[in-house]
Amino acid sequence: MTPDDRTLDLRDGDVRFRVLSAGRGEPLVYFHSFHERGGWSPFLDRLAGRYTVHAPLHPGVQGSGGVETLDDVLDLVLAYDELLDRLGIGAAHLVGHFFGGMVAAELAATLRARATKLVLISPLGLWRDDAPSADLLILPHEDLPAVLFRDPASEVARRWATLPEGDNENVAAQIESVQRRAAMAKFVWPIPDRGLRKRLHRISAPTLVLWGDADRANPVVYAEEWQRRVKGAALSLVPGGHMVLHEAPDAAAAAVAEFLAT
């Protein structure tokens, strides 16, 4: 599926969002994480069969801009609030992975009317000294597959890890990776606890916490922590690692669609 690709300027052009959209049905907004490239994936293709999926790229990532004008997570949340207005969306299903899960949770806690239902996929934002999340922002590229994927030798992991062969394309890919991670690092590095735990009780939307059962980047112990802190949250474990949306797009999309349909 080829999504519609558009760029929307907010705040007199100080913040710019590139948004990929496809599908028909109820609106669903997907918030990506550190190591997703291109902004669209087979997981979103599956969901676009049932929903109108909007996948904005965070400010500073691949055509979105203005991250330097955002001081903190609240600024980012309010920028997304304005983006939803520009998209003509009052309330939507909010789905996010890791950093994107943190953004979705912050939106649902701060602006409760925005979230119809909430899906948090291995979300970032909590911290336990006894089970620290891996620092995915600074790990060398060659070390990432073993942390991100259940099977780093799998075809999907090898495709993800392969950089372009041409010198110019290789350099461009590495620069893009640094820029993408730096744009999100501003809001979560070095410790991702920015007080979200104090706001999770405000979430009123029905919530699904979804985790890869072999997640080595964000320990599965956090799944129970999120379920405990978000009132009434359901928990689903899907076979896969941290990049479960790419390793098992069919199973992950089926779990999300089943939850949203109930």
Average pLDDT value?
96
Q: Got a strand count? A: 8
Characterize the largest beta sheet: strand count, sense, and whether it forms a barrel. 8 strands, mixed
Total number of distinct structural domains: 1
CATH topology name: Rossmann fold
Structural class: alpha/beta
Characterize the overall form.
globular
Classify the helix fraction into a percent range. 25-40%
Strand order of the largest sheet: 1-2-4-3-5-6-7-8
Strand content: 15-25%
Enumerate how many helices there are, as a single number.
9
Give helix and strand order, one letter per element, not per position: EEEHEHEHEHHHEHEHH
- The low-confidence runs, each spanning 5 or more residues with pLDDT under 50, are none
User: Which radius of gyration do the C-alpha atoms yield?
Assistant: 17 Å
- CATH homologous superfamily grouping: Alpha/Beta hydrolase fold, catalytic domain
In the CATH hierarchy, the architecture is 3-Layer(aba) Sandwich
Q: What's the CATH class, please?
A: Alpha Beta
Amino- and carboxy-terminal Cα gap? 26 Å
